[in-house]
Design goal:
The chain is α/β, with parallel strands linked by helices. The chain has helices at about 10-25, 25-35, 90-100, 110-120, 135-150, 190-200, 225-235, 255-260, 285-290, 310-320, 325-350, 370-385, 405-419, and strands at about 55-60, 65, 70-75, 130, 155-160, 160, 170, 180-185, 205-210, 210-215, 220, 240-245, 265-270, 280-285, 355-360, 360-365, 385-390, 395. The protein has 13 helices and 18 strands. Helix 1 (about 10-25) runs parallel beside helix 12, helix 3 runs antiparallel to helix 10 (about 310-320) and helix 4 crosses helix 10 (about 310-320). The protein binds pyridoxal-5'-phosphate. The site of pyridoxal-5'-phosphate has 16 residues, from helix 5.
Length: about 425
């Protein structure tokens, strides 16, 4: 480990930042233009990083090119949504075909039931499901369903959890959140869960949890705590909701199949729309049947684009051509091996970084008191080496990433640590 990551950290970070500014005038100009019409030039907070984020012009397979003409291997994969890479032929074919058939036909489509059939077959916890337009919306609807069906107000979530733009619990209940009655518990804390149910059991409509916190730094849930939550919900009549918006890729049946724990409801999003905006929520038939519009007491759930033809058909192509059980298992194994190899490199270089995660989704963390600065420096230097991942350390492998790319990343890490 060089001094750059320890005693000379501030100077090294200043130099890396200056080099980044000098190397990326096109991205700087793109932000300046955007600033005139969007606050801070930004419309998606998670993309922001100082001094300005890269503006990416194009992508092919697992490679992207920024507006200044630099090429990168894409290890971010659209924060897990871009699992296919950028030019998957079956998705291109499906989208072009459906567009030629006509879109916005104000009707049911041949595609939505077909997509729902495949998803229900994969996730036994979703006996019935409904489509939405984002993971955020899927979670909002799942929570609303739980509150209406149970007639209870309280929702248990977890510190570090992220379920969407208005369901964000990185530092407790955020001011931007919807005004539900949230109890924000520590993650992986059996005692806190028991205490919450002891104090408030009859008021709890739902427990909403990620089997691995994604935005919260790729922290995997303790299976014993998940099982405890399963038991507490069963005992009290609260609904256990797994947010598998990220973790659904962990196997054909998501993380829940790997864990062997079946929630009452599941939410998914990201890649099941074949790269287009997508969300879905589903659950036991007795819960979801409340949406049956032939019922006099039906719960309404409208949405112009809930079943839009492009997304439905792209999702169908995605499942049939790319998200096969074999491909997902192989991606999981590739991710586990890559994370282990990365941790071995970091340990050998003094342990100033550590990688957490599950399967193909992982997060590099700095360690020690200067952790954030160290990670920033690593990020600048890896970008200069031609590797793209989130400034906060998130890596999400996509299907086109193979041994050449992961080996290249590991070699670059060694160079950066030794430089
Ligand atoms: C676990 C989880 N839930 C929900 C969401 C929200 O999904 P969307 O960005 O599609 O609204 C995300 C997005 O990153 C997520 O990671």
């Amino acid at each position: 480990m060089t001094d750059a990551f320890t005693s000379d950290l501030d100077a090294a970070l200043d130099a890396a930042r200056s080099a980044y500014v000098a190397r990326n005038p096109g991205s700087a100009a793109a932000l300046e233009r955007a600033r005139r019409v969007m606050p801070g030039g930004n419309t998606r907070t998670s993309l922001w990083s100082d001094p300005f984020p890269l503006s990416v012009a194009s992508g092919q397979g697992c490679h992207i090119r920024d507006v200044d003409g630099h090429d990168y291997v894409d290890f971010l994969g659209e924060f897990t949504a871009g699992i296919f890479g950028h030019t998957a032929p079956a998705l291109a074919e499906a989208m072009a075909r459906v567009h030629a058939e006509g879109i916005n036909l104000s009707s049911h489509t041949p595609y939505e039931a077909a997509l729902a059939e495949r998803l229900v077959a994969r996730f036994p916890s979703m006996e019935l499901l409904r489509f939405a337009n984002s993971g955020t919306e899927a979670n909002l609807m799942a929570l609303t369903t739980a509150r209406l069906v149970t007639g209870r107000p309280r929702v248990v979530v977890f510190q570090g959890g992220y379920h969407g733009g208005v369901l964000t619990f990185g530092h407790g209940n955020a001011p931007v959140n919807v005004p539900f009655d949230f109890a924000v518990l520590p993650y992986n804390d059996a005692g806190a869960a028991r205490a919450e149910f002891a104090a408030h059991g009859p008021e709890i409509a739902a427990v909403l949890i990620e089997p691995m916190q994604g935005a919260g730094g790729c922290r995997a849930a303790d299976p014993q705590v998940l099982q405890l939550l399963r038991d507490l919900c069963t005992e009290t009549g609260a609904l256990l909701i797994f947010d598998e918006v990220q973790t659904a890729r962990m196997s054909e049946g998501g993380a829940q199949a790997r864990l062997g724990i079946t929630p009452d409801m599941t939410t998914i999003g990201k890649f099941f729309g074949g790269g287009l905006a997508f969300g879905a929520f589903g659950g036991r038939a007795d819960i979801m049947n409340h949406f049956d519009p032939t019922r006099p007491d039906a719960i309404g759930h409208a949405g112009t684009f809930n079943n839009n033809r492009l997304t439905m058909a792209a999702g169908l192509a995605a499942l049939d051509h790319y998200l096969t059980p074999k491909a997902l298992d192989a991606l999981f194994a590739r991710g586990e091996a890559f994370r282990a190899a990365l941790n071995a490199r970091f340990d050998a270089a003094g342990g100033l970084f550590h990688v957490t995660g599950m399967g193909s989704i992982m997060n590099i963390h700095g360690t020690g008191p200067e952790a954030a600065k160290r990670l920033r420096l690593l990020h600048f230097r890896m970008q200069a080496e031609g590797y793209y991942f989130a400034a906060r350390g998130l890596i999400a492998l996509s299907l086109p990433i193979g041994a050449a790319e992961t080996d290249g990343f590991l070699d670059a890490i060694e160079r950066v640590l030794a430089a």
